[in-house]
Each structure stands twice: as structure tokens, then as C-alpha cells.
Amino acid sequence: MSKTLRIISSIKGPNSVTTKLTDTIASKIGGETVNRDATSIPLIDGNWIGAAYTPADQRSDAQKETLALSDALIAELRDADTIVIGAPVYNFGVTGPLKAWIDQICRVGETFRYTENGPEGLLSGKRVIVAYASGGVPLGSAYDLASAYIKQVLAFIGLTDVTIVAAEGVAVDEAAAVQRAEAQIAELAA
Predict the structure, then answer these.
(1) What is the pTM of this model?
(2) Residue range(s) defining the domain that contains residue 91
(3) In whole angstroms, how far apart are CA 110 and each of 5, 18, 39, 43, 143?
(4) I want to staple 157 with a disulfide (CB 3.0 to 4.6 A). Which of 24, 105, 111, 138 is the partner?
């Protein structure tokens, strides 16, 4: 049975377009879905960085506790066949909750490593579908700082099979924007 990891990063709760779209995508894929609400993920800080860059066999109990959530989030990623990410655009970029999730999962020695040729992603062979929703920022436009960032950071950890489903113009005509995104979802292979 396939396993899908669904990331919810909107602060709008049940009124979120991306939350509804990721639900539709996960239903289309089928199999088991693990839901991760990123709105409760804390920001990383200096203690987190110190713990992450301390060799695992030398970490104190406090450092292990600091990284416990990050370890759990990375385990969810490793365990998933498909990752479905809700990516609403706030002020031209990703939401704070999505950025917090990204910071927690980008860990040296866990999801990427440094090599003589630069960073190398350690996750691969997974499909990612991003549900992008914006009030008026067209996907791929000069004002869209979210989609390129998401693709870059996912490639950084080895996830390069990325499809974006876009609900553009939600502030102008939400029903039409959602309908266009749902048509894109219908074209996805299950």
C-alpha cells in the first residue's frame, strides 16, 4: 500500500484552499495518508543548530530532545512514497509554517550532505505534488517567490520529481481558481 505524507501549512484552517486541494490530491492517490499540520511546528534557533551539527553519538539528552521533532518529521518523509504539500502564497512567498517545516527537515547528514562538489540530497525516489494557491500572484511570475524556492529546497534534499497544481487568482474568483486546480488534479496519475 502506498503512503502519502500531506503537509498542511495554511493558517486559515478549514477555509484554506490549499488544505482542501491537498485533501483532494491525497484522496486521488489513495493508500494511507499521514497528515502533518505544520502550523504548530516551532522555528529553529541556535540550540537547534548546535544540536543538529553535533555528531549524533556526542549529543546531550537536551540536544536529542531539541531534535526529536525534526527526527520525527524526517522519518515521516523517509516513510512516504508521495509528499503532498499545501503551499499558500502569503506576501509573495511561503507561509511561516511551511518554512518552519522546511527548516526542521533540512538536516546535514540526514536529508543532505556536503561533498567536494557541493551539497547532495539524501532523499530520492519520491513524488512530490505541491498545491499552490495565491490571491493574485501567477505561478512562475517574477512575483512568485514561493514555487522556485520550494523546488530548490526540495531538490537540495534530493526530491526532484515535483508537480505543482495551481489555484491562481483566489482573491479575484476563488471558485474559478479552485476549479482550474481541480482540473489539474484530475489529470494527475493516481
Answers:
(1) 0.96
(2) 3-187
(3) 18, 28, 23, 18, 32
(4) 111
Residue 104 and residue 181: Cα distance in Å, rounded? Answer: 29
In whole angstroms, give the CA distance from residue 7 to residue 67. Answer: 19
CATH number at residue 182: 3.40.50.360
3-state secondary structure of 150: helix
Cα 130 to Cα 150: distance, rounded to the nearest angstrom:
9
Phi and psi at residue 117, in whole multiples of 5°?
-100, 10
**Complete edge-to-edge strand list for the sheet that includes strand 161-168:** 32-37, 3-8, 82-88, 127-134, 161-168
Query: Over its length of 190 residues, how does the chain's per-residue pLDDT go in tens digits?
Result: 799 999 999 999 889 999 999 999 999 999 999 999 999 999 999 999 999 999 999 999 999 999 999 999 999 999 999 999 999 999 999 999 999 999 999 999 999 999 999 999 999 999 999 999 999 999 999 999 999 999 999 999 999 999 999 999 999 999 999 999 999 999 998 6
